[in-house]
Design brief:
Length: 589
């Protein structure tokens, strides 16, 4: 019999002049005094018993008491970010004892939004699609942020309560069921976490203490990672990281926009997060991975700590996406301005980064640092044909599959899936989804909704889009339009078959090869600035040749044809290959 007593309820609140605990029971609310202790931690005499609903009231220097506030370290918010916190009654019995985890090498990642991936919009709805994803060849699902947010509809990047799980998705219990089901299906679960700002709706941490440090990331105030009293803020983040790995058996974290961290200490919080991942992995025998989204083009994130890096498993690489997208779609607005030539594609495919200390027209300055191709395993770079950002941060939220032919969609997929880098799919791209993925929200405060509308309209005006093209992010229909439709048209069936075949070939041909220095890339124009032509890349024993133009191309690379989506447009001989418009061929030289 477990006789361990639950801990007493406590909270870090250096800003409080006085503080009291409010609990809710069948007979109404009860009030309990709290005592300030070491390090500005306030403690009660009330145990954190499973099922308990509670909150705090803070007295300021003016003697006024606040309304009842949720716990910044709340583990559950059944009524949303404004409601009382709850101690979960954890009855889940884990069944994943045989799960050993997955390293990043060899993975096929699949990014999804829980609320729009299935009709149910829940963790259980995702679980019902796991067999479909496994059949495609997906090895890990990557959930967009699942911390509590205001309202019922949100991308998740406006989250608060970094230790809690959004109730409408299924809360803590639903997430644990999904993780167990994924592990039973042989798949990992990665969670997208946002530690660069707090969402605006239900954000009460500033009443408790200095969780932020002034200044703006563009989405909210800078998180206090290195200012006065930042030790507790860092512990707030690091304890959440440990919680995901230990309590929820999560296999990996994707760190959102780490370039927005203001973290000037000798030890980066990214390095500390990676150390927790390694510690938990060593203790459990289940490997944990950390992937960063970064606009810095800084190889330090994925370099070994022995070489002065942070040792993260991987990072997103937008440059490869941009290079492919601009050539296939012809778009060159906003941050695509630096892309759109064969020479740019050649460099990004070969080196991972376009910007490695060279000048960026879009930024108006030099940017980035070169990756060491001899020492950096290729799989540490996560690549994709689109993501939630690359789709949702367009005026209409239109997907590439809404604008491109099936041939162009599969061509882009082949360029990513036949590279040595780690591929990631965005939900629905594998069957050419016709539904958009616009930005959506449903803040409880209409003023926040209006500010979000104006912010989106202003952002897109600067990029040349008309306000009339931008869906209202607070409108329920905007959210409903983003839900995937699972009844496939004949063309979508063909696209899905191609994705499945390319992923299978990736594994059979062992295209996840660590040595970037052995990856060869060639382009088909003497003028690197040419915007049309061909690209050929691969290794000594396998090569992809692709026509990035609307005209027939002759390439000096031949061999045995392994696969083409449009074999009727491809002629392969020993001495060379002829490719029809927007076609490709996977060859064995």
């Amino acid at each position: 019999m477990d006789t361990q007593q639950p801990p007493l309820i406590s909270v870090w609140a250096p800003y409080a002049h006085d503080l009291r605990l409010i609990t809710r029971g069948a007979g109404g609310d009860n009030t309990y005094p709290m005592t300030r202790g070491a390090g500005d931690w306030w403690r009660s005499e009330v145990p954190a018993s499973p099922g308990l609903r509670y909150g705090f009231q803070i007295q300021g220097e003016d003697g006024q008491w606040s309304k009842t506030l949720p716990d910044p370290r709340s583990l559950a918010q059944p009524d949303g970010p404004h409601g009382l916190s709850q101690i979960p009654a954890d009855k889940h019995v884990w069944r994943d004892q045989d799960w050993t985890g997955r390293a990043l090498a060899g993975q096929i990642l699949y990014e999804l939004h829980v609320g729009t991936f299935s009709e149910a919009g829940t963790f259980d709805g995702v679980a019902q699609k796991l067999s479909y994803l496994r059949d495609i060849g997906v090895t890990s699902i990557q959930l967009m942020p699942i911390n509590p947010f205001g309202g019922k509809r949100n991308w998740g990047y406006d989250g608060v309560g970094w230790h809690a799980v959004h109730a409408a998705y299924g809360g803590p219990a639903g997430l644990k069921r999904l993780v167990d089901a994924a592990h039973a299906a042989g798949m990992g679960v990665i969670v997208d976490v946002v530690y660069n700002h707090f969402g605006p709706d239900g954000n009460y941490v500033g009443m408790f203490g200095p969780y932020t440090a002034g200044g703006s990331t563009g989405w909210g105030e800078v998180v206090n990672m290195c200012g006065p009293q930042s030790d507790e803020v860092r512990a707030y983040i690091l304890d959440a990281v440990r919680m995901w790995f230990e309590d929820y058996h999560i296999d990996g974290l994707r760190l959102d926009a780490v370039h927005a961290f203001v973290d000037t200490g000798a030890y980066s919080i990214m390095e500390e997060i990676e150390l927790i991942a390694e510690e938990v992995g060593a203790a459990t025998g289940v490997q944990r991975i950390v992937i960063a989204e970064s606009d810095l083009n800084d190889p330090r994130l994925i370099s070994a700590r022995e070489a002065g890096g942070y040792g993260l498993a991987g990072q997103w690489v937008d440059d490869i996406h941009h290079a492919i997208h601009t050539l296939v779609s012809g778009e060159h607005h906003a941050y695509y301005a630096d892309f759109g030539s064969l020479g740019v594609l050649e460099k990004t495919l070969r080196e991972g980064f376009l910007f490695s200390g060279n000048y960026s027209t879009y930024r108006g300055r030099r940017h980035g640092r070169r990756i060491n191709r001899e020492l950096t395993p290729a799989y540490r770079l996560v690549t994709y044909t689109t993501t939630h950002d690359q789709t949702g941060n367009r005026a209409k939220g239109d997907r590439p599959s809404q604008n491109l032919s099936a041939e162009k969609q599969v061509l882009k997929a082949a360029l990513v899936l036949c590279s040595p880098y780690t591929p990631m799919l965005f939900m629905g791209e594998e069957f050419g989804a016709k539904t958009p993925f616009p930005f959506f929200c449903s803040h409880g405060d209409e003023g926040l909704n209006e500010a979000t509308r104006e912010g989106r309209f202003r952002e897109f005006r600067h990029s040349g889009w008309s306000q009339d093209e931008v869906p209202d992010p607070a409108c329920a229909q905007t959210f409903e339009s983003a839900k995937l439709v699972w009844d496939f048209e004949p063309e979508q069936v063909e696209i899905l078959r191609a994705y499945r075949h390319l992923i299978r070939l990736r594994k059979q041909l062992n295209l996840t090869r660590p040595r970037m220095s052995e990856f060869q890339v060639d382009i088909g124009q003497q003028d690197p600035a040419a915007k049309r032509g061909w690209v050929a890349y691969g290794f000594e024993d396998i090569r992809l040749v692709a026509n990035l133009s609307g005209e027939k191309q002759e390439l000096p690379y031949g061999g045995e044809l392994i696969y083409s989506f449009t074999p009727e447009k491809v002629q392969v001989a020993a001495e060379g290959t002829v490719l029809g418009p927007w076609s490709f061929a996977l060859l064995r030289p």
